[in-house]
Design goal:
The structure is a single chain. The protein is an alpha+beta fold. The protein has three domains: 61 residues; 76 residues; 148 residues, Reverse transcriptase/Diguanylate cyclase domain (Alpha-Beta Plaits), CATH 3.30.70.270. The chain contains ten helices and seven strands. Strand 6, helix 10 and strand 7 form a beta-alpha-beta unit.
Length: 304
Amino acid sequence: MQKKDLKALVEEIYENLLERIDANEHATKEQVINYLKDAVDIVSNIDSTKIDSIEHAKEAFNNKYKEIVNQTLISYEYTNEKFEQLTLQHEKVLSDCINEQIDLPTLTSKFNEIQSHMTQEIEKANEIISELTTKVKVLEETTNLDALTKVFNRRALDSYLSDVCSNTSIPFNLHVLMLDIDNFKIINDEYGHITGDKILIFISNTLRKTLRDGDKIFRFGGEEFTIVLNRNTDEECELIANRLLTLISSNRLLYMGQKISVTASIGFTRLVKDDIPDSLLSRADKAMYFSKHNGKNQVSKVFE
């Protein structure tokens, strides 16, 4: 990695860290440490030979989902503190009632006051939740990166394929692969969604480390990934797809002392004249289902 790239990454980390501190009224040392740990993980996974890898890192630093989660937790902590205070007020009122002669009008007034405070706190919490929900929605509508796997998302795929299909003079072969993790629901049910997330990250890291500059990786949705390969023959594309399956199936993920086997099924197709994004993805998806139907952990192709 060149010196200018290193400086750009450090500047990105510095600027985003300051933004997070400025945006958070209750910023803590632990939050700064956690951000820096995340930044170290991101930089450690950069493939210095790939420009895309560096750009992914820069976009990852701009990922504000964790910031939003932190804001949510802070707002809940604040609301919980308020409810604890109100609960203590309830207990004090009840204690006063036991030790003194009950003054019904005063008691009613106190409980009404406490109830009013509780209602106000609930309204404030709902306003914060609404604001954070809006922020998440805006991020989902504008970002091109999948928050979990750090590969491109479905929005980026739609835009990329639209550009590709509108270019009628591409001077090379272009292939689209659909990769689907086998038995993903069973894995989620047996080991939990955290394990499922780790498998998705493992798959995306395997794809990034294996494919070349110019090839594109997208998370299509759920346990599916879409890969766009440039400048390959049909035979080369099939070899690459089989190599990916071998790399995936030859690894064992550890979960609480147990080794989890992971396999995937791949279908691929080639860009042809008059293709639109839907037709291209439909053929790749059809080929992938052939792989599933024929026993999984294999590659199929559909060109028509």
